Amino acid sequence: MKKDQSLSRRVYILIAVMGLWGTAIGARLYFLHVVHSADYKERAERQQQRTLEVSPRRGNIYDRNGNELAVSIKVDSVFVVPGEIENRKATAKTLASATGLSTRDIMAKLNNDRSFVWIKRRLTDVESETIRKAKLPGIYFQKEDRRFYPQRELASHVLGYVNIDEEGMGGLEYRYNDSVRGDAGRVVIMTDARGRSFHRVEEPSMPGANLMTTIDENIQYIIEKELKAAEERTHAKGISIVAMDPHSGEILGMGNYPTFNPNEYSRYPPTSWINRSLSQVYEPGSTFKIATAVTALEEKLTTPDEVIDCQMGSIVLYGHRIRDTHKFGLLTVKQIIENSSNVGAIKLGLRIGDEKFANYIDRFGFGHPTNIDLPGEERGLTKPAARWSKISIGAISMGQEIGVTPLQVISMVSAVANGGIRYRPFVVKKIQDPRRGVVTETESQGVRVMSERTARELQDMLDSVVTDGTAHASKLAGYTAAGKTGTAQKIVDGHYGAHKYVASFAGYAPATNPTLALIVVLDEPQGAYYGAEIAAPVFKNIAEQVLRYRSVPPDVPSYAPEYKVEKDKLRAPEKPQILEPPHPEFIPASLSRQTVGPPELGDIAIPDFYGKSLREVTEECLKAGLRFQSIGSGAAVQQMPPPGAYVRAGARVRVRFSTRLSQR
């Protein structure tokens, strides 16, 4: 009996133990498969697979005529699966020789315990081919997009550049990065227990939006060509040139020196990346006398014909003697601007008064950013009237004691040119998504800063500056022009330096019907330093070429442009060449709908551009008075109209460029 009870007790204990054990196992399984299921699944996936993020294809950037300024091209990136490497030392040496990286850095990557490691992203064609020929185990390639700027330095400060991760780091690339970048893709690599890959799945990226800018590639080329010539003549520390449509605020071109190639920006000093047109703050000198004259006329404190005694070029203002470059006596207000009299400008400023002048300076936009759609803009340097000294009104009236940017000055000059409206400058006209079409389109925004009457009076004054005043060197062949010269000493260690100047000229053309506003600023030129001597001629050279390129009719009756093409350089093709339309991915929809009809007959023979570079074709078109549109990069391979065809001045010529030049 006792034995049966003992056996029964043992059975119950065993059953209880088994029950507890089963309960524990069940609880454990419940926690593993239910409570912590997601966590363990995630850990397993991390052990078995690795995810590569593939940068998306950035949208293209075009000029106003559909020419490509920035595109993305497919290139190889190389990565390694360390677990599959057989001879790490030999592999490291081969990769180092092919990529230019150090053997030590590559060995560190090969010894990494991760399932994959990038060796180098966005290889050159030579680097990729060298590594492929080596056929190294554990080495794999992934296609990625690399930003490419086909025109190299052209408009580099406007376009900006991108880093290794395809993130915009300057210019439009930075300002519109969220729109242009697109959505990243992914590559999922499956690995076994030893870390060896056996399968990969790719999730494609979504391309970014295209930018249609207001920049004209040909105008930009003209600007940069003349900018380079000016630098070679003057050896200036820095140069800025901005071309604007005075009736809309559209930036037609913007060039700076020093410049850089955004394809290899890291080879240039960071100072070369700066867009001086927006960020260079300088004392404007006599170009600011435009603001002084506008204020006095707008407040009806004077008239263009009023005679003012300029005291033989000398005035004492609270113990400070200020002189003119010439001993002027009696001058009308128009002549004060025409001859750039400091004494005359100061006398106008004294009539205006501190508070009123400060209000007009604010109205003209000085001391505030113009809000152009480019990064890095400075607001300039201004002070409220309460902080002006007794001589501030005199200094500011002639362009001292105030800091401005080239963009602010050309905005003010444009307001004079268009009849009194200051427009917000802008660069991007449209943002076009490849799936949704036009996302946004920029409309001109302006505010009236002076009456039409005052603007007309200023226009007459600035016209006389060119015809009879300090800016003879800016007089155009075939066109009227208006503008103002400026020469300002730079402040060095708190004092005006004896040999450091900023020379400038701001103006517009034609004076009778302005279509182009232009400013030229040279910082610390060597040798000649007056704006009339070195800045005005640059204005002339650029304005003449731009107006002819845009087919603006000459407004000087005695002038008739002559376009010459050397006939011995023309070759009649065996059969007409037809320009194939570019791939729709690279041309906006609005442009792709345009048709290329037969050109009107004229007296200008189309040159043969085959095999020539973009710059050579651009120069020939400018000389011949033709409007030029480029497609692609490299050497010219096709054109429309064909060589030998006769067209009128201003006709459009489309030329396709390619890196592969075939025989014909």
Explained architecture:
With about 675 residues, the chain is of the alpha+beta class. Strands 2, 3, 4, 5, 8, 16 and 17 form a 7-stranded mixed β-sheet that branches. Strand 20 and strand 21 form a beta hairpin. Helix 11 crosses helix 13, helix 12 packs across helix 17 and helix 16 packs across helix 17. The longest helix is centred in the N-terminal third of the chain and has 34 residues. About 5% of the residues have low confidence.
Topology:
Blueprint: H1 2-35, H2 37-48, E1 49-54, E2 61-62, E3 68-80, H3 88-99, H4 103-110, E4 117-120, H5 125-134, E5 139-148, H6 156-159, H7 171-175, H8 177-181, E6 185-191, E7 197-203, E8 210-213, H9 217-234, E9 238-244, E10 251-257, H10 276-279, H11 289-298, E11 307-309, E12 314-317, E13 320-323, E14 330-332, H12 333-339, H13 342-352, H14 354-363, H15 392-397, H16 406-418, E15 421-423, E16 428-433, E17 437-441, E18 446-448, H17 452-467, E19 482-492, E20 495-509, E21 516-523, H18 531-534, H19 536-549, H20 589-592, E22 604-605, H21 614-624, E23 627-632, E24 635-640, E25 646-647, E26 652-658
Parallel strand pairs: 2-8, 23-26
Antiparallel strand pairs: 1-6, 2-3, 3-4, 3-5, 6-7, 8-16, 9-10, 9-21, 11-14, 12-13, 15-18, 16-17, 19-20, 20-21, 22-25, 24-26
Helix pairs in contact: 3-4, 3-5, 9-19, 11-13, 11-17, 12-17, 16-17
Keywords:
664 residues; alpha+beta; seven-stranded mixed beta sheet; 21 helices
Task: Describe, in short, the structure shown.
The chain has 664 residues and is an alpha+beta fold.
